[in-house]
Specification:
alpha+beta, two-stranded antiparallel sheet, extended, 3 helices, Ku70, Chain: A, Domain 2
Length: 214
Amino acid sequence: MTLRSSWKGFIRLSLLSVPVKAYPASVSATTIRLNQLHEECHSPVKYKKVCPIHGEVTSDAIVSGYEYAKGQYVEIDPEELSKLRTEGEKAITIDRFLRPEKLDAIYLGAKTYYLAPDGPVGDRPYALIQKALREEGLYALAQVVLSRKERLVVVRPYGRFLTMTTLHLKHEVRGLEEFDNKIVAEETSSADELTLLRELMASRTAEDFDFGNY
């Protein structure tokens, strides 16, 4: 199956600009889907796209339009919408760098993307940024517009690639003080209990973890 990018633009670091495409890193999980049926005969219920003048239409005959007056529309070409994006909306603008241990995992969002160079012109500068981040052991914090919303993201090396993960802002994460009343017991564990637990943890600590086994 051909991979399709979900975003196209540039990684921007000072005067360095790298054309890239973003591909979702996650795939849809297998779920049980329920069909809507007619109760009487159990035939699948179908939904049709209907034009009030011409009747049922196929998906390839449908375009997007903007209603500028009641019942009056102007057709919008997807390519034209892309051209309306400002330079800022086309860029992953790196603001600063940080050590991985300084980024608490609680701020990591749900969306991660693989970033790949967009064409031969991006190969060398892409490899340069990837190598520098990997060898220096750094992550890059950046701003980007995704789905018309400005997001804070972290760009980090992963294998030979760069990945981009959305971040939650501080006000989007519940503070610990909201849960103070959920933990009422004081620490009363004995030294023997703690030693036993540490031994159990040591026996099950993986030096190399393979998600493929799960």
